[in-house]
Write a structure and sequence with these properties.
Number of strands: 2
Oligomer: single chain
Structural class: mainly alpha
Largest sheet: 2 strands, antiparallel
Order of helices and strands: HHHHHEE
CATH class of the domain at 40-130: Mainly Alpha
Distance between the termini: 60 Å
Shape: globular
CATH topology of the domain at 40-130: Arc Repressor Mutant, subunit A
Number of helices: 5
Strand order of the largest sheet: 1-2
Length: about 140
């Protein structure tokens, strides 16, 4: 089996010549969904994407991404803003909630979603199970 070709980084891309990187494709960056995000929301997506791992056996953790409360506070300093930005990523079809940690007091588990490709189209819809669980959201 041939070895995979290692990609060398330019000097402005990394402190190392070779190594891990976070891939964001140009068609995503040029999409309506991406361009409606603020820079802070794009940064949150990049942070989530940096946690993505493809293993040697072709498995991935694409549906097992989490940000514990302590990490969210380090990134944002304010949990409300963090949650608002996460909700916007969900509403634009970039991520989805896989497991709510609300009842168990654990970190929520998120996964990546391809729905951003349909954002703005008539048939674009975010399934209710993909949205973040918000306690008492139905009571108003």
């Amino acid at each position: 089996m041939p070895k995979s070709k290692e990609i060398k980084h330019y000097s402005f891309e990394s402190a190392k010549e070779k190594g891990a990187f976070t891939k964001i494709c140009k068609d995503m960056q040029q999409s309506k969904a991406w361009n409606e995000l603020s820079l802070r929301q794009q940064g949150l997506y990049l942070h989530l994407k940096s946690k993505f791992t493809k293993y040697k056996n072709q498995d991935t953790n694409e549906n097992n991404i989490s940000i514990p409360k302590s990490e969210a506070l380090t990134l944002y300093g304010d949990l409300r803003t963090f949650r608002d930005d996460l909700d916007i990523l969900i509403e634009h079809g970039f991520v989805r909630q896989v497991v709510s940690g609300y009842n168990t007091r654990t970190a929520n588990i998120y996964g990546f979603s391809p729905l951003w490709k349909k954002y703005g189209e008539e048939d674009f819809i975010i399934p209710i199970q993909d949205k973040r669980y918000i306690p008492n959201a139905h009571k108003k």
